[in-house]
Amino acid sequence: MNVQKEQLKQQITDSERNLKAHLDSIPAMKEAQVAQAVVLSESQKMSQILANVNFNVAPLGAILDQLNSGKCSKDLVSASRKWIFENCQTDQLREVVLTYLLSRVKDSHASDNFRLNILYVINDWAYQCLFWSLTLEQKITLVRVISGCIKFQQLRNPGQIFSSAKAVQAAEYAKLAADIEVNLQAMYSGYEQQHKNYVQHIMQQIAQIDMQIEAEKDRARGL
């Protein structure tokens, strides 16, 4: 019976270890769930923006995918810029494609070199638009859009831009993160209650074994 008691005590220890593992995993689970929710939300936003103007950026996306894979950046940067000039003929489309480019910069899977190249595309595109192809009103519009999204003095530090974008994003999705935290804590509370019920059940079994042991001792003493 003592062996059985030790086995039951070990089950309690194992349950405590599992409960602690659940608690320790909450930060990582929260980070993963928030990241997944943000990616989904940002993707839906971008899809809606593109759908609203019936604009297909798939060809540009294919070029950018190659750029992010580390292929010849000079030719791909030129190809990206060329596609933008040929397909973005209105202020509305320019704003849309700029939003798309910045969404690619903020992508956590993007390399710093990729971000830097995209920012150079934006910078060169803005420069040429401002000085060659736009009316004064259009120039003001594009400057407003770009200045609201990026500081060109940061072009040589894409990591800083990404960090700044992530900070803004974290603030934007603070409520979402808080809701996920609440759900995870509620899930943990459920596990904790299950653990308490399980321990109570095991302790009852141990108490019964102790009673049996004492009863056998009494019989052995002739009581």
UniProtKB/TrEMBL annotation:
This is CID domain-containing protein. Residues 52-223 form the CID domain. InterPro entries: CID_dom, ENTH_VHS. GO terms for cellular component: perinuclear region of cytoplasm. It holds the Pfam family CID. GO terms for biological process: intracellular calcium ion homeostasis. Gene3D superfamilies: 1.25.40.90. It comes from the Eukaryota.
